[in-house]
Amino acid sequence: MMKWEENVRKVVPYTPGEQPKKSHMIKLNTNENPYPPAPAVAEVVKNFNTDMLRMYPDPAIGDLVQEIADFYKVSRDEVFVGVGSDDVLAMIFLTFFNGKKPILFPDITYSFYDVWADMLRIPYETVPLDDAFCIRPQDYARENGGVIFPNPNAPTGELLPVEVVESIIKANPDVIVVVDEAYIDFGGESALPLIHKYDNLIVVQTFSKSRSLAGSRIGYAFANKTLIKYLSDVKYSFNSYTMDRITIEVGTQAMRDRAYFEQTTAKIIATREWTKKELAKLGFVFGDSKSNFIFATHPDIDTVKLFEDLKSADIYVRHFNKPERIRPYLRISIGTDAQMQEMIEFLKKYLEK
Amino acid sequence: MMKWEENVRKVVPYTPGEQPKKSHMIKLNTNENPYPPAPAVAEVVKNFNTDMLRMYPDPAIGDLVQEIADFYKVSRDEVFVGVGSDDVLAMIFLTFFNGKKPILFPDITYSFYDVWADMLRIPYETVPLDDAFCIRPQDYARENGGVIFPNPNAPTGELLPVEVVESIIKANPDVIVVVDEAYIDFGGESALPLIHKYDNLIVVQTFSKSRSLAGSRIGYAFANKTLIKYLSDVKYSFNSYTMDRITIEVGTQAMRDRAYFEQTTAKIIATREWTKKELAKLGFVFGDSKSNFIFATHPDIDTVKLFEDLKSADIYVRHFNKPERIRPYLRISIGTDAQMQEMIEFLKKYLEK
Predict the structure, then answer these.
(1) What are the angstrom distances between the C-alpha of A229 and each of A76, A194, A234, B13, B281?
(2) Is residue B2's pLDDT more than 90?
């Protein structure tokens, strides 16, 4: 070993879902939106004056921040924008989780939380979900260095009512509580209004799912202006200019089109409910997901083999190897009606064998 | 103070240069390129299929990495790409500067280095430049936790010959040495070939200056594949998908056009040399900058007042308040010939008064 290796931060990184480059696949493995972004996005990109790219972008990302603030009826100093919600969450871990007590998150949850904690040397404890894969709020009423959970949870899709979310916030006045709402637009109620009631609450959302912009990398957070200031100071200490000029305009246009957003999320919800009925008919078992995916297993078949067989048929879903408790489950993103029908047809034939 | 504030990382962020939104200004304050990006950039943006934005980008940024590797004749596993060189440098600080001994950098240098060190609680010592604002290589031949310096240095523009850079690397085999070459394309010789000779060397470059893409946020680093792997692991532990789909294509096209890159950098160098002659005639004093800016002062006038007076005439240059030694200096970015002529005319009249 070279001597300089002593000072290297050695980590085990997060593994994102596969991005195969096939033209004829059904890609239901990374919770992408099956519909294109709002029509104005195409216009703004087509007409973008690329000569402007020679100049730095607005470090405050002002236009996009204002558009988000307008849409959600909050003040612009209550909004933080980052390069995807992963960037926002990484900045939150770096800014707010610097205590000696362990932060808490569910044992089955977004698998990036423990990666951030490990990388930043943040002590943490995972809190087991109950047997129905639900968060038990009373488990978070104990000493800790911070709390984070997704709502709906990933990869289970289970939604906590906002009253239950509030009970967790209420039980933790001395630490920062982060509600990661990447999937909230598919049938959940946001904790956003609570930022005016609790000064320790941060609500995180993203353009990647409900606004069809996973490829643009835009995430955002809401909190009172004191927290947003702390977060921005750390961001400006990391990278002054995080969002490129084109993406700022893309995000601004996407946020502006409320009707398109409501239409596409409603379509995905309808497709999800149809898919649930069909999967149930085939004997699959799953919770009542309020996200853009279904976390399902089947009592009679080897679902890990099914995962591979789906892939051989160019149908990509997601399988997590750990924790052990979720090994029999597959996470199936909601695509278009046609895609889900094709998948259901495949499964019908598969189960007939 | 609320109890949760105890766990907040409190920092004093970097202050970027002003980005005034005026149409008739001469903006020489942030070292932007006065020429637009390569023509193919406009084409690729205009024809970009925005429907693709619904899907995550390639987390490995493969196309752009390959294009950079081809341009510089290195292997793709010797290239790391980030959201501007600030993102690349922040990741380097996070990955490699985790020792107890202080890292070393010049006392007059890119003012983000101490911000990163402070934010990440990295001990550091600044090494004074000599009276001519030059790095003395022998000052870096002592125990430390890492070394970083820009070449050419900022905001002085002073270039070290590559043999002197090598002497600093050679004197520091036990730590990581980072050569920050944001301005190398304006007349310097890169340390890039040395990555095959020294396993502890990282060379950082950017699309923001010589490739006219400050607004796109693309930076990159070269090092042997072991270092690139460590850096990538930390990046993947921070944010899997840092670069959006459009920017990946923009960067790829810009890197592909070698002729345009050589033309525009040659034009900027010629304009810089003309500007130096004119400034000298007016009694300004400055070093032999090999960057796209000139760091100048004038023995007979109050340059801080000049800074404000230039601004009143819509000519923006940069002034740094600290350290004390550089307070009388102004950093003037190189614009087009017409812009520099206009500035020189202003200065002529100003000095006649």
Answers:
(1) 11, 18, 9, 11, 47
(2) no
Residues near B252 by beta carbon (within 8 Å), at least 6 away in sequence: B44, B63, B64, B67
Give the DSSP H/E element, type plus range, for residue B58. Answer: none
| CA neighbor of B239 nearest in space, from B94, B50, B64 | B94
Mean pLDDT of all residues in chain B? 96
**Residue A329 and residue A31: Cα distance in Å, rounded?**
15
pLDDT tens for B293-321 read: 999 999 999 999 999 999 999 999 999 98
CB neighbourhood size of B124 (10 A): 20
**A110 closest CA partner among A156, A169, A55, A164:** A156
Q: What is the pLDDT of residues B159-196, one digit of tens each?
A: 999 999 999 999 999 999 999 999 999 999 999 999 99
Q: Give yes or no for B115 touching A (CB within 8 A).
A: yes
Q: State the Cα angle at B232 between B227 and B235, rounded to 5°.
A: 130
Contacts (Cβ under 8 Å, ≥6 apart) of B308: none
- Which of B16 and B118 is assigned the larger pLDDT? B118
The beta-carbon neighbor of B16 closest among A12, A59, A212 is: A59
- H or E element: which one contains B235? helix B225-236
Q: Looking at residue B158, what DSSP letter applies? A: P
Are the C-beta atoms of residues A297 and A320 closer than 8 Å to each other? no
- Residue B85 near residue B106, CB atoms below 8 Å: no
- 3-state SS of B71-107 is HHCCCHHHEEEECHHHHHHHHHHHHHCCCCCCEEEEC
Sequence-separated (6 or more) residues with CB below 8 Å from residue B303: B297, B319, B328, B329, B330
ipTM: 0.97
DSSP string, B114-128: HHHHHHTT--EEEE-
CA distance B70 to B350: 49
Number of C-beta neighbours around residue B211 at 10 A: 27
Specify whether the CB–CB gap between A143 and A99 falls below 8 A. Answer: no
Q: In sequence order, what are the residues at sequence separation of 6 or more whose Cβ sits closer than 8 angstroms to the Cβ of residue A281? A: none
Q: Which helix (H) or strand (E) holds A201?
A: strand A201-206
Q: What does the pLDDT read at residue B322? A: 85
pLDDT tens sequence across B57-116: 999 999 999 999 999 999 999 999 999 999 999 999 999 999 999 999 999 999 999 999
Residue of B nearest to A241 (CA): B217
Q: What is the least distance, in Å, from the CA of A143 to any CA of chain B? A: 12
Is any Cβ of chain B less than 8 angstroms from the Cβ of A324? no
B1, B5, B6, B8: best to mutate for the A interface, most A CBs within 10 A: B8
- Give the residue ranges of chain A where pLDDT is below 70: none
Q: Chain B contacts of A17, Cβ < 8 Å?
A: 56
Contact A45/B at CB under 8 A: yes
The closest of B191, B172, B196, B200 to B104, measured between CA atoms, is B172
- Per-residue pLDDT, A124: 98
- The phi and psi torsions of A26 (rounded to 5 degrees) equal -105, 105
Q: What pLDDT is stored for residue B16 in this prediction?
A: 80
**Measured between alpha carbons, how far is A159 from B150 in angstroms, rounded to an integer?**
50
